[in-house]
Amino acid sequence: MATIDLEHLTLYYGRVLAVDDVSLCIADRELCVLLGPTGCGKTSTMRMIAGLETPSTGKVYLDGEVINHLYPGDRDVAMVFQDYALYPHMTVKQHFAFPLQAHKVTKAELEQRVGEVADFLQLSDLLDRYPSELSVGQQQRVAMGRALIRRPKAFLMDEPLGQLDGRTRAEMRASLKRLQQELGTTTIYVTHDQVEAQSLGDKIVVMKTGLIQQVGTPEEIYNDPANLFVAGFIGTPSMNFLECPLHVDGKVGLKNHRFEVALGPSLTQKVKDTPAERPLILGIRPEHIRLSPQDESGDLPAEVYVVESHGNEYVVNLNLGGDVIKVRRDRKKLGFRPEVGQTVWVRFLQDKIHLFDKETGARLV
Amino acid sequence: MASIRLEDICLEYRGKEVCSDVSLSVGEGELCALVGPSGCGKSVLLRIITGLIKPTSGSVYIDDQLANKVPPGNRDIAMVFQSFALYPYMTVRENWAFPLRASKLPKEEIEVRIKTVSEFLDMDPLLDRHPKQLSGGQKQRAALGRALVRRPRLFLLDEPLGSQDAKKRMELATELKKLQMDLGITTVLVTSDQIEAQALGDKVAVMDMGSLRQVGSPEEVYEKPASLFVAGFIGSPPINLLDCALERKDGQLYLTHPHFHLSLPAELAAKIEAQAQADSVVLGIRPEHIRVTADELPDSIAAQVYVLEPQSNEILVDLKVGDTVVRTRADREDLGFQPRLDQEVFMILDKEFMHVFDKATELRIH
To answer: Which ipTM score applies to this complex?
Structure first.
């Protein structure tokens, strides 16, 4: 069993508050991703769990026991670093054997465990190679193996796939996910890459400037972002944001000087307590906008600005009365090829509209 | 504006063929994205167009004029490098003025051009900064600006977005495309990122080991890849490639695999019959063209859920079919059920989107 609990953790570097009152529960066997831009406090938080940083206040629990006082080496957590930190003078086999030597394991057991890990990571043919004789992907697996062999209570991974090129990264992601699920080891994974976070995380913790912005599953974070920051950070292409004050004039809608979007009955009900003329931001994801070459009632006209081909989709950049929005749609489903300069008609899917308070950034609907 | 025509370009270097018989045309105002894995020869080809490298044989035509003997400086080409190569001890303004002064342009004209380009690139507040005071995106624009002020007839860009993070890259790519379209400057852009190539290119030229494998619109190289290499290189997640045998039975054509036996629709079967040289083929099917269902349906193939990766509004479901891992991709809402790890499920391949390649030649059969 390996649950990890963080209770009101804060960390100051001098006068700079790097981690601001972070409390979190990580369940046994969970892969929890700490996600956020550079400087958000994700690595600092992980380092406090590892014991490489001492919290200014707050407690770290492993399996219900406080571990603040334990040295990193005594915490039974294994870390995988972004740059792998492999020992240049040791072979792959030595990398795996080294952590076990401290644990006084018999020679037979050492051989057996090294063999097991090497097989698991498909490194059996490379045991006698040195790091300089390995590809980047292989080096990454050695770093993993060195952590794996210890059978720790938890893995702490700091952007372990950061060095890999796009394609290798995508492949390693799937392998890593499968590996973690087969092993069942509780894992904390730090990354700034929201694609990676969604792929890997059972739970994602979105952070910004030391504070937790939202905790949820990939689906929750994507479908129900708690605020503007999370909404804009998760998803590529990014969610479209349009400034629109609420406007009540017989029917409820969003109106700015360029366009007006009527809100259907469901959304109208949700905003009934919001004061009229309140500055709001309408958020709508690129895949939740429909395009038509003809004017259909209730649609907004927009001018095609740039058309990008992405696999089986088009990403159409549109000029909607001065705001640029992106629309993403499967080519076949779109049914026509938008041309630059063409006027097309735009409709937002009502049940996919997000409304944020412009001042606080909080989500209203 | 200028067109480019490469005819049978070959480059041999230390006994190795770096470029083999490359012929390529780029029309006026067109953006050609030259894409391929590291070491495929694309950057070398770009340098042959500029004149920085001389081909062993073959011709370079710029605006229908043979350019082989024209020195790089006289070809009226502006090149933007991946590292930007900005002069670190000059401000942005000085970086831009430098090539214009070297061309002996009058002072007033230099100022006008700098002003115009600065407004265009939104660099007004940054003109007096040094490169180290600029963010990655700003340096990018500074490098572009230095090329733009020259008003070249050709733009050659070598991995211009390479140093940006994924999100920034997408934003800059759109801006770059818009800029190129507005200015109408014939452009060749080299990248190893096939996503970028598809997004930016009017035309995509796929290269591997010194040769051009396919040249076409982004839609063409994606929807009708000419070979196994192009099929596997263009598209992410990558296409699934499965070794199959062609079998004829009772007047019908089948694709057989250790784990499935699929009849081919009449039209596809006819095309394959006409072209197939042998019976060993490779079936290509893109992840979005495989449907995953909980229940057995006609033509469905038994599989096991191996990895689940949520991605935006989609979910990538990797399935295990025997020893093979098959990647699938579906809109969460279209999937209709919540797959669980190790669950026994079924997959259906969309026959309308099958790609069949000859195993020996690796070329598309239909």
So the answer is: 0.89
